[in-house]
C-alpha cells in the first residue's frame, strides 16, 4: 500500500510535504479523480544514501488491489539540500498491485560500497538487489549466503571472513527488483587483517560532495588550498587532515589552543575557526586561550605537587593518574566518558576497557563485546595510555572500592539507564582486563535495587570479584591468560569466585601461548568464544583446582624477588 521513491540524492522533505499540502503534488485515484491524502517518511537517516528513499503512505484504509493511480510531483517539489530543483516534473500512472512492483526504473543499479565490518562482508548497492540473483556473488569462487539489511540497500554476509587475501566477484548478473543488470561488474581483492578491523574495500564518491573542481581549482570555501593527491588542506602554517579533524603537524605557537598541539579550533569547530593554522578565532580570543592554558598548567602543577607530598597515596592516585596520563598522551587531560555506541540499541551492553586503551581501542573492546553477545555495545571509556598508572589504579583504587572519576561515571550511567528502562529489564556490563576491576568497584556506588538489575560479565578480568547481590555474574577465563589465572586478585590466585555466593557461572577456554596478544587481548577472547565451545569438564576441573590451589607455587616469588615470563608461560602451557 506504499509508494517508494528512490532518488539520486537527498531532498528537502519539508518542501515535498508542503507540495502535497497545497496539492501541487498529488496521488490521485484516476477512476474517481479523488486526491488521496498521504503522509511522507524518510526511513534511511544515516550514511551516503541517507534521505534518498521517500515513502509515500496513503492515509486511511488500504487501497483495493487494481485501483488506478496517478502520481504527480512538480519539479519544484523535488529540491535538494542546496536549493536545486528537478529540471522537470515526475509523473507516473499505475494500478495498486497485489505484490511489490517496480513502476518506473530510469537507471541501472551500482555497487556503492564494500565494507568489512567485524570480519563480515557488507555490500551496499544504490538499489535493492533482487534476492534471486544473490547467489551470483562469489567469494574465492564460491557462493556465500546473505541477508538483507533493514535499509534494503545492503547485503550482509552471514559467514565470518577469515584473515588473509580473498577475491570478491560481483558480476553483472546481479540485478535490481526490475531485473536491470548491475551497470558495472566488480572484482575486488580483499586483504583481511588478523585484528578484525573495520575497513572500506570499495567506495564510490558521495553524491552530496564534489571532491574535485571541474575547473581544476584547488582552493576551498575558506580560501584554503586542498592537495588533490593526499586530500590534506594547507592552512598557511601547517597541514590539516579533514578526515581526522586534526592537524598533522604541531601548532607553531605551542599550546595556545589547549593541551593538544594538533587539535583543530580548540575542538569546537561549530563556534571557532582557525584559518591560519595557529589559534582558534571565534567566541574566545587567542589571548584568552593563552590565559586559560596557563591557568590549566598551574592547576596541574598544584595537583601533582599535592600528590608528591602525599607520597602518591590512594586518596589522590585517581586524580594524579587521570591528569598525568592525559598529559603524557594526546587526549588533552583525558577524562572518562561515554563513547559512541556500535549501534542504535536503546539498551546496549556497556563495556569497560583494560589498560593502555585510548579512545579507539576502547571502541574496539565495544565492537568485540558486540560481536560476542550479538548486541549493540557502548564503551564507558577509562582513559590512560600508561600501564604504570593503570596498574596502580587497578590495585590501589578499583580493588579497594575507592571512588574515582571513572567509577562515578559508570555508576551514574547505569543509574540513568535503569531509570529509563522498565523495572523488569536489566542492564549488562562487560569488563575486559582492568575493566573487570572497575565494574565491581562502580557497582558499590549503586543502590542494592539497581545492583539486582545488573548482569556482569568478566572477560579475562584483572579482578575476580563482584557484589553478591548482582542479578548475575559470569567469568570468562582463558586458562593460559596470566591476568585472571594469577594476577586477578593481586598476588593470590583467583580463588574467591569459586566459593562466591549468589548466581555465578564460569566459562573456561584454553587458547594462545601465554603472551598478552594471543591469550589476553579482547580480540583473542572474541575469536576463541566464536570458534570454541566452553571447556570440557576435565579442563574445567583442572582450572578450578589450579585456581584453588594455595600450594601450587606458581605465584611464590623466587629468591631474586621475581619470576621470569618464560617460566610462568611454561606453567600455563601445562594445561590442555
Q: Tell how many strands the DSSP assignment holds.
A: 29
What does the radius of gyration come to? Answer: 29 Å
Structural class: alpha+beta
End-to-end separation: 60 Å
Q: What is the average of the pLDDT values?
A: 77
Q: Strand fraction band?
A: 15-25%
Report the total helices.
Answer: 13
Description:
By secondary structure, the protein is of the alpha+beta class. The protein is built from 13 helices and 29 strands. The strands form 7 sheets. A 7-stranded mixed β-sheet has the order 23-25-24-26-27-28-29, sandwiched between helices. A 5-stranded antiparallel β-sheet has the order 12-13-9-8-16, with no helix packed on it. β21 and β22 form a beta hairpin. The N and C termini lie far apart (60 Å). Mean pLDDT is 77; it is low at 310-333, 488-493 and 550-569.
Layout of secondary structure:
Elements: E1 3-6, H1 13-21, E2 26-29, E3 34-35, E4 38-41, E5 53-58, E6 68-73, E7 90-95, E8 111-117, E9 120-125, E10 138-139, E11 142-143, E12 146-148, E13 154-157, E14 164-170, E15 186-192, E16 199-203, E17 225-226, E18 233-234, E19 239-241, E20 246-247, E21 272-273, E22 281-282, H2 286-309, H3 314-328, E23 337-338, E24 349-352, H4 359-373, E25 377-381, H5 387-396, H6 405-420, E26 427-432, H7 435-443, H8 448-451, E27 454-459, E28 472-478, H9 482-487, E29 504-509, H10 516-519, H11 522-531, H12 537-548, H13 565-572
Parallel strand pairs: 24-25, 24-26, 26-27, 27-28, 28-29
Antiparallel strand pairs: 1-5, 2-3, 2-6, 4-5, 6-7, 8-9, 8-16, 9-13, 10-11, 10-14, 12-13, 14-15, 17-18, 18-19, 19-20, 21-22, 23-25
Helix pairs in contact: 2-3, 3-5, 4-11, 6-7
Amino acid at each position: 500500500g506504499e509508494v517508494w521513491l528512490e532518488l539520486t540524492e537527498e531532498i528537502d522533505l519539508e518542501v515535498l510535504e508542503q507540495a502535497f499540502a497545497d496539492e501541487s503534488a498529488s496521488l490521485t485515484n484516476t477512476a474517481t479523480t479523488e486526491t488521496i491524502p498521504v503522509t511522507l517518511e524518510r526511513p534511511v537517516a544515516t550514511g551516503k544514501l541517507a534521505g534518498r528513499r521517500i515513502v509515500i503512505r496513503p492515509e486511511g484504509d488500504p487501497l483495493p488491489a487494481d485501483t488506478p493511480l496517478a502520481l504527480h510531483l512538480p519539479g519544484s517539489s523535488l529540491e535538494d539540500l542546496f536549493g536545486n530543483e528537478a529540471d522537470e516534473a515526475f509523473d507516473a500512472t499505475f494500478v495498486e498491485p497485489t505484490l511489490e512492483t517496480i513502476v518506473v526504473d530510469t537507471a541501472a543499479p551500482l555497487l556503492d560500497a564494500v565494507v568489512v565490518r567485524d570480519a563480515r562482508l557488507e555490500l551496499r548497492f544504490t538499489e535493492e538487489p533482487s534476492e534471486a540473483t544473490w547467489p551470483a556473488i562469489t567469494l574465492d569462487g564460491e557462493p556465500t549466503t546473505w541477508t538483507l539489511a533493514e535499509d534494503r540497500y545492503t547485503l550482509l554476509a552471514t559467514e565470518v571472513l577469515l584473515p588473509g587475501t580473498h577475491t570478491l566477484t560481483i558480476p553483472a548478473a546481479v540485478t535490481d527488483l526490475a531485473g536491470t543488470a548491475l551497470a558495472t561488474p566488480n572484482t575486488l581483492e580483499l586483504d583481511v587483517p588478523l585484528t578484525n578491523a573495520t575497513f572500506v574495500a570499495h567506495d564510490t564518491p558521495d553524491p552530496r560532495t564534489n571532491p574535485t573542481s571541474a575547473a581544476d581549482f584547488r582552493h576551498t570555501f575558506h580560501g584554503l588550498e586542498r592537495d588533490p593527491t593526499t586530500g590534506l588542506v594547507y592552512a598557511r602554517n601547517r597541514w590539516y587532515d579533514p578526515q581526522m579533524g586534526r592537524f598533522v603537524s604541531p601548532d607553531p605557537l605551542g599550546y595556545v589552543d589547549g593541551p593538544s598541539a594538533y587539535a583543530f579550533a580548540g575542538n569546537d569547530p561549530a563556534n571557532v575557526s582557525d584559518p591560519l593554522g595557529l589559534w582558534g578565532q571565534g567566541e574566545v580570543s587567542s589571548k584568552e586561550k593563552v590565559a586559560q592554558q596557563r591557568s590549566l598548567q598551574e592547576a596541574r602543577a598544584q595537583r601533582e605537587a599535592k600528590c608528591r607530598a602525599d607520597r602518591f597515596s590512594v586518596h589522590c592516585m585517581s586524580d594524579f593518574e587521570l591528569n598525568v596520563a592525559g598529559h603524557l598522551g594526546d587526549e588533552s587531560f583525558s577524562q572518562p566518558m561515554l563513547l559512541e555506541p556500535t549501534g542504535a540499541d536503546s539498551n546496549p551492553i556497556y563495556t569497560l576497557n583494560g589498560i593502555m586503551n585510548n579512545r579507539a581501542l576502547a571502541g574496539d573492546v565495544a565492537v568485540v563485546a558486540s560481536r560476542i553477545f550479538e548486541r549493540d555495545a557502548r564503551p564507558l571509556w577509562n582513559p590512560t595510555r600508561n600501564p604504570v598508572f593503570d596498574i596502580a589504579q587497578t590495585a590501589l583504587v578499583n580493588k579497594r572500592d575507592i571512588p574515582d572519576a571513572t567509577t562515578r561515571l559508570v555508576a551514574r550511567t547505569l543509574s540513568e539507564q535503569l531509570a529509563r528502562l522498565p523495572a523488569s529489564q536489566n542492564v549488562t556490563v562487560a569488563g575486559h582486563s582492568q575493566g573487570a576491576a572497575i565494574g565491581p568497584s562502580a557497582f558499590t556506588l549503586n543502590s542494592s535495587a539497581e545492583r539486582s538489575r545488573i548482569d556482569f560479565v568478566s572477560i579475562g578480568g584483572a579482578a575476580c570479584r563482584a557484589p553478591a547481590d548482582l542479578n548475575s555474574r559470569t567469568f570468562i577465563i582463558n586458562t593460559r591468560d596470566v591476568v585472571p589465572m594469577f594476577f586477578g586478585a593481586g598476588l593470590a590466585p583467583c580463588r574467591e569466585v569459586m566459593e562466591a555466593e549468589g548466581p555465578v557461572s564460569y566459562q573456561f577456554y584454553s587458547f594462545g601461548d601465554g603472551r598478552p596478544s594471543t591469550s589476553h587481548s579482547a580480540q583473542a577472547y572474541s575469536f576463541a568464544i566464536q570458534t570454541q565451545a566452553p571447556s570440557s569438564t576435565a579442563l574445567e576441573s583442572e582450572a578450578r583446582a589450579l585456581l584453588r590451589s594455595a600450594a601450587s607455587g606458581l605465584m611464590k616469588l623466587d629468591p631474586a624477588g621475581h619470576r621470569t615470563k618464560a617460566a610462568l608461560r611454561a606453567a600455563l602451557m601445562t594445561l590442555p
